[in-house]
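pinning this so it doesn't scroll away 📌
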Amino acid sequence: MKLELPEKKKWVYTLTLPIRWGDMDAMGHVNNTLYFRYMETIRIDWFKAINALPNPQGQGPVIVNAFCNFYRQFEYPGDVLVRMYVSDPGRSSFESWTTMARASEPEVICAAGGATTVWTDFPAQKSAPLPDWLRQHLE
């Protein structure tokens, strides 16, 4: 299955994560909740790499929507190749897209998802304009 990403998507990060024995459910495949954990892990690693971790006394990213589509199962043992893309920067938000494949078959997408991120002023509890330095990573 091929995921259709927005035309103006930008690849920003790749990560390989091990599938752990305890990630499997009673059906013998990785539980669906772990796919969201894989997307969270790559997002946080990318935020850390660009120095965009949230500051509770200041500003930072907040996920307001997340989704995942499942195409093929992951099973133990193995590694998941996770790729993250960004697109559609607005005044205070942007979209992220994630593909997940077996590391041994990097072109076969097993799951794909995404999230809407809003840059937030935490003390004011409202959205804030994307900083110019972050916008440069998105465009």
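📌 and the second one:
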Amino acid sequence: MPRRQRALPLIWPKIWLVSDARNDAVLEAALARLPRGSGFLFRHTHLPPAERRARFERLRRLALARGHWVALSGDVRIARRWGADAAYGSARLLARGPALPRLAAVHSLREIGAARRARANAILLSPVFATRSHPGASTLGPIRFHLLAARACVPVIALGGMTAAKARRLRCARWAAIDGLSGA
């Protein structure tokens, strides 16, 4: 299967749809609604390995047909083998592996430092607002989000309770959502 190569410097998409068990049934429609050239972050860690791979392949083809970036949650080696444009995960998970763009999940200044050491090319900073993924969890809020984002030294993607309206209010160039982009 031919793979496309991303040219450096990386120009990260402004909008990212994040997959989850609860939005699985609407992912095809959500991918079709995204603006051309958006990002798709495939997690689906709830599926057994063979089912996860098959679901990834199906959604990857749809995403690529719309010109979207595709990031795979997990090990960098697996993301490269599966033909993803990037790998997504904790700094610990991204620290080793072949050359491939890395999106690190971060929640604190300490994790921003770890992401930098793991060679992350961008970070998903969360949770900005209250989210169904982590009910009752403390949030960063706009002020803390911007303070942390200023220390990142790489592009920052806001995650957690995000919608288009909240992204405008936050004045954030890049954002990602599960429910806010899928209607799940």
